[in-house]
Specification:
7-stranded parallel beta sheet; 22 helices; globular; 6-stranded parallel beta sheet; 41% helix; Rossmann fold; 3 domains; 564 residues
Amino acid sequence: MPRAEIFNGRITVETEYRDKDLIRGIPGSKFDGASRMWSVPLTWAHCLQLRGVFGERLELGPELEAWGYRELNERVAPAMLARDYAMDPESDMPGDQRLYGYQRAGVSFLRLAGSAILGDEMGTGKTVQTIMTLEDADAYPALVVTPKSVKGSWAREYERWAPHRKVIVVTGNAPQRRKLLAEPADVYIIHWEALRLHSRIAGYGNIRLEDKDKEPGELNRPWAAVVADEAHRAKEPKSKQTRALWAIGESAERRYALTGTPIANHPGDFWALLHFVAPDEWPSKTKFIDRYCLTAWNAFGGVDVIGIRPERREEFFRIADPRFLRRSKAIVLRDLPEKVYIRRDVEMTPKQAKAYKELKGDMLARLDSGSLVVTDSLTELTRLAQLASAYLEVDGDQALLSEPSSKLDELEELLSDLGDEPVVVFAASRQLIDLADARLVKRGISHVRVTGSENDTERDWAIRSFQGGHARVILCTLGAGSEGITLTRARNLVFLQRSWSLVQNRQAEDRVHRPGAEEHDSIRIFDLVAPGTVEEGVLDALAAKGDRLEEVTRDDEALRRLLT
């Protein structure tokens, strides 16, 4: 009979040789040749996994049994009760009455969970829930990792909800950032791209670490809390950005991952976030996939994750749920207006259509000859999508959008149809936003921009000008404007172009569809689409797969269907 007990901070398992393949499949399992025994990390997850592997055959030693009862009663059960309560749309808790009831319930869950993923849908107030959790737990000093464009928003939220805290926005070049990180403060707000420049890099698999990667940086110090905002940016474990976050979080008492899209493509995406918030519970991605994920061979000889194993589903969620909370706006913000999608077909100008036809014909010819490779197809699909919006001049590797633009003609008509109503405009291409900017200047239509070229002050001014009614239109690139900003003054959102990422499109929509939009009877989302072009294929692929278009362009037949 297998027996498990605590020894040297791990769970040691005495078992028969015939059970080695069972225990080997548990993430984090190790075999000690000297004692001839297996061991796994001392976590609630591994207690459940051992019970799942051995069933009632497993005997628990007294120390492990006592530890398990404490963990259940002090963390797991309270967190699950708080989670179940927070999932109730009518949930309410004592606390700051400026918060919605569901937000107060979310704060209770986060505080009891200790470290967790807050996966509430975009626009539900993950930032304020996190700030109030840190206040309740007095979890300072805290590090907040966020997109560069959202650092100012976090600082303003702290001014509103916890004005007594000293907050430093870490900005500037590397020496300036080091100087700011050396100053005493309660909260440091830093952008994702700077992480690996101020931290050592955690190991992953057999990736070789250079000497500089092993050197501790200014961020490798004890933290009461580390918060990863828009944490889906850390779903790729091979990325140095992700592994810097892991290294920084190792010394933190609390770790919170905030994202409205915790799983962008498949359950495998979830592992990197689980590893950040609870590294001992989720030590190995390979064994995570082996134990919990359904997989299938793809056409290129690789393995795709396609879902959760039905026979392990209950075990997986018993482990994950005490650290994961997800609520949709439809459940907790039922007063928000509905989204109404309106497609407006826009015929290309003759000059655009001629160039589009020539480029598509060239692509099909090279596809037939076998000379069109993946990197070429992605580049030229992008060019086709640009041609569907405006004329495109290509000179070598350079591609420049210029007039005429059928999309901008239609935008002018739409603005006229909407009278004086405020409008948010999104496009994937910054060049297209530049052309729209010039059109609006020519027509005397008041507008501001968020394109990534503005500094933090200029960006904040643009958003405040729009929200304050001083500009009728705000022009945004999907890369710069789809995260962390509120544009609820508008009930009209126009996509000149869609992103090839469903996640980014949804984030853009939720700039207007969030708390503050209750005064509108509906949110109207206009798609300007060139019929008979690759844009229709993009919309179909997004609707059918809920996934990135790049994943289908690797198949010749899928690419041919997209083109034709």
